[in-house]
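[Protein data]
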Amino acid sequence: MAPQIVPSIFAADFTRLGEEVGKVVDAGVQMIHVDIMDGHFVPNFTMGTPITESLRRRFPHLKLDHHLMIEDPDTYAPIFIDAGASCVSVHCEVCRNLDRTLHMIRDQGALAGVVINPATPVGLLEDVLDIVNYVLVMSVNPGYGGQQFIPNALNKVRRLYRMRSERRLNFAIEIDGGVGPENIAEVAKAGVDWVVAGSSVFHASDAGKAVRELQSAAEEAISIRV
């Protein structure tokens, strides 16, 4: 099955956020990516719960995939879930008790994801893969949009794909950072299920068309994968 494109509103025009999200929803998007940054874990700040609440009201059936790039996910994950987050991913680099944090997210009613930065090995996740609903592989260093794709991320994706098959698990594999028309085929072939795309969607002249073209390229790549 081809991966689904998950547009990241970090790259959207916030003066027209509802319109921007509406365009990609009209193009068939079922989930959008919401980056939460605290200025400590990463050197940038982004949106709080009012954005989540507004999106949930306007798009009640849309999955809201929240990526918490923050130092205190245990405090803020429940707050974002209450605001309308459907999926919440936390960085293994910052969670002192990752097992407990992931169980807490699931107990609060959201899908639980774990994130690994480019320098973090996949092996650190071995003991939580049976808990998580998804694993997010960062293909750029988190904090800023528009960065260049780090190719080693695909080796991590392939390893996770093998581990999932060997252990008969069913977590989704997500990738985030630097994905666009030039590498979407390679990303799809590696075994990704969810492809986060920010600049390549919302910086295009037509966001809806950009989503459709990325989705089509991913589907074509999967159809010829050997």
User: Anything to note?
Assistant: Residues 207-223 form the longest helix (17 residues).
